[in-house]
Amino acid sequence: MQTRLLGKHGPAVSALGLGCMGMSDFYGVRDDAESIATIHHALDRGLTLLDTADMYGPYTNEELVGRAIAGRRDEVFLATKFGIVRDPNDPSVRGVSGRPEYVRASCEGSLRRLGVDHIDLYYQHRVDPSVPVEETVGAMADLVAAGKVRYLGLSEASGATLERAATVHPIAALQVEYSLWTRDPAQNGMLDACRRLGVALVAYSPLGRGFLTGALRSPADFDADDYRRHSPRFQGENFARNLALVDKVKALADEKGCTPAQLALAWVLAQGEDVIAIPGTKRRDRLDDNLGALDVRLSAQELAAIDAVFPPEAVAGPRYPEAMMKLVNA
Questions:
Q1: Residue 220: exposed, middle, or buried by beta-carbon count in 10 A (0-12, 13-18, 19+)?
Q2: 286: nearest Cα among 68, 48, 34, 70
Q3: Residue 290 is inside which H or E element, if any?
Q4: Residues classed as catalytic
Q5: What would the mean pLDDT of 169-179 be, rounded to a whole number?
Q6: Is 216 exposed, middle or buried (0-12, 13-18, 19+ CB in 10 A)?
Q7: Cβ-contact 310, 181 below 8 angstroms
Q8: CA separation (Å) from 194 to 8, 189, 199, 223?
Q9: Is 205 left (phi over 0), alpha (psi -120 to 50) or beta?
Q10: pLDDT 10s digits, 246-269
Q11: Rounded to whole angstroms, how far apart are CA atoms 136 and 140?
C-alpha cells in the first residue's frame, strides 16, 4: 500500500483512505453486513485511513465503524469529526457548533460509539462563525493533552482560518472537497495555506459523489432517499452538461486502459504528495476498483489532456444546495 504523510511531521497513512459516510446515510439503502465486509476488505488490502463523523446517521456510522474495527484497532488510523449539528426533529436541518463544551461532549460520544480509547485524527467538521476558531482548537488541543485525540484537523476551513488555528496547535490535515469537478482548494488559497503550514490536504468526494465513475446516467439511478436528487449538479440541465464532461473523462480512461474512477482518483493524487483521497463506497468490488488507481500514473501530457476536456469552469451548478454552502468557511 502506498502511503503519504499526514502533515509535514505526521504519521504515514494509506494514500487512499475509505470514506464511510455512505454506508449509513445520504446514499440510499443501507447494507451493514456488506459495509462491514468492505471495511474488513480495506484493512486486508493494507488501507489504514478510515473516515467517519458523528453527524453521519446521525451517530449510526460511528457505531458501524466501531463494530467493524473491533479486534483490529491497531490496523486503523481512525478519523472522525464533530461540529455539524442535525435537528432530531428534522435531520435535513443543519447547525454548527464550535463551543468548547460541545467539543468535549462530542469527543466523549464518539469514543463511546467507536469503542476506542483514542481518536487518531479529530476534525472540526465545519467552522462555527460565532466562536473564534482559536477557542475551538484550544478545546481540541486539551483533548490531545488528555490522550483522547492524537492529531487535529479542520474541514472546509479557509486558508486564513487554517492559519489562525495553527497558532494554537499544529493542524495535521485540512479535509475539503477536491476532485476534477471541484477545484476550489487550488484556486481559493486552501492548498497554498496547507503547503505553507505543512498540513496534508484530505480530499473528500474525489469521485464527485459518484458522478465521475461514469456509472450514473440519469437522476432516476438514485434511490428515493438519495440526497443527490436535491444536489444542484445532479439536477436538470446541469446533470446533462456534467454527464457530457464525464463521458470525455471516460474516453481518456479507455485510452489509458483504466476505469473512469481510477483516472479521476489518479488525477487527485497527482496534485501533490501532500494530497490524500478518501473515496467512499459500501461495496468491496468498488473498493477494489478505487484501489486500482494507485497503479495509474499520469504524465504531464495526460494531465494536460484531462484539463483540456474538463476545465475547472466547465462544471454546471454549485457543489451544495444554498443552505449547505452557507456552512462552508470561504
A1: exposed
A2: 34
A3: helix 284-291
A4: 56
A5: 97
A6: buried
A7: yes
A8: 10, 9, 5, 37
A9: left
A10: 999 999 999 999 999 999 999 999
A11: 6
